[in-house]
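Quick question, first post here. What does this chain look like in 3D?
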Amino acid sequence: MTLLRAIIVEDSEDDLFLMVRVLKKGGFDVIYTRVDTVEDLHNALQDDKWQIVISDHAMPLCSAPEALQVLKKSGRDLPFIIVSGTIGEEVAVAAMKAGAHDYIMKDKMARLAPAVERELRDAELRKQHRKYQKQLEFLSLHDQLTGLYNRVYFDNEMGRLECGRQYPIMFLSADLNGFKLINDTMGLKEGDRVLKDCAEILSRPLRKGDVLARVGGDEFAALLPGAENLNGPGLLNNIRSAVDQHNRENSRLPFSVSLGYAVSSDPDKPLAVAYQEADKMMRLDKQNQTESARNQVVNALLAALFERDYIAGGHAERLEKLCLKMGKEISLEQDRLTALSLVAQVHDLGKVGIPDSILFKKGELTDEEWAIMRQHPEKGYRIAQTSPELTHVADLILRHHEKWDGTGYPLGLKGKEIPVECRILLIVDAYDAMTNDRPYRQAMSKQEAIKELKRNAGTQFDPNLIEIFLKIIG
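> Answer (accepted):
Ran it through. Tokens below.
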């Protein structure tokens, strides 16, 4: 049976029991309250549990039209059904025009249960429509990701405050530094997380009536009316302190924010001028800290790289040692040896942007997972290009998976088109991978690894360098 919670406006106990009996026969488990005065109906409507109002038409203390008016004033959208033995067609039509959803003659009570079922269904549809409309209204004025106001609302609010009585008005302009780098290397999901964290931090020092909006991809702005008691530099310092604290508590991927503010005290001066001044101050702040902000992100990514399980096992150190032996054996110049040493440590930097579920998967990767894995040289290249300490090895990071026969990635280079540092690294990396445990397989013996290197000389590996490497490892 379907549970039905009904307010029944009825002064006759016999008619009440008749309605309840008919509804139960129609498949409803009825929970009801009976009222017969306007005041009792008003009080009953304060309880949100009721789903419907069923009312007799003519009663001494509360007629159906009066009950309908009480329901309307309550703001509740409940079905209202009139049940009467005396209502005429003209009265019934007038009641429907006034807002009643149906009327049932007492000599046709079999219609009551189907009418209730229909009106409950229609009421649920109206409820869902209102919910959908509220969502659309919210989205039209808010940023879906952060929940902040959007640019449309911000501009409208600025227009509303223009020439009003809430001067002085402070503007705050904020821009998330290094956001493109975070998106390119760590992915959109991580970028979204940083955006939400930034939005939450920016909102902390603001007052209830202030307006904070996401006005661009990585740009935020705030309107602070009635700002006579606000301290602009203090506000910016509070935000920077909150960001610093967040970074200490969430060291995996720190972020920084460029900030600016301006105050408009003259109602005759367009507010847009003050907003532009705040934005200009923010961009100057951005110029002053862009390099340090990028280095902060890169250093965090490097730290994440060295926390990876196979890195912690000494992978980078073993690669650096063997690569330098190879480089010296072929008489590389000192600057190239230095680059080789560095790229041996950071060549997999782009893997910080690869999900652990792929990176440490036990078993073979699917084609889709391989496509994601093969993105790491380009991710690493983009990271390295933003760091003064890594710029000179960015091209080596990009090319470290190129193969001698041209079947490597991402550029498909072949033979001596591939930098010798990358050809060395490819051999050493493969040997280390084969002779140490990985999530997807156990280590080979040294003899098995040598056999595999020889088998792939001339296809995957530079055959001349293979001979040199085999001499080195004895």
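The longest helix spans residues 271-307.
The mean pLDDT is 90.
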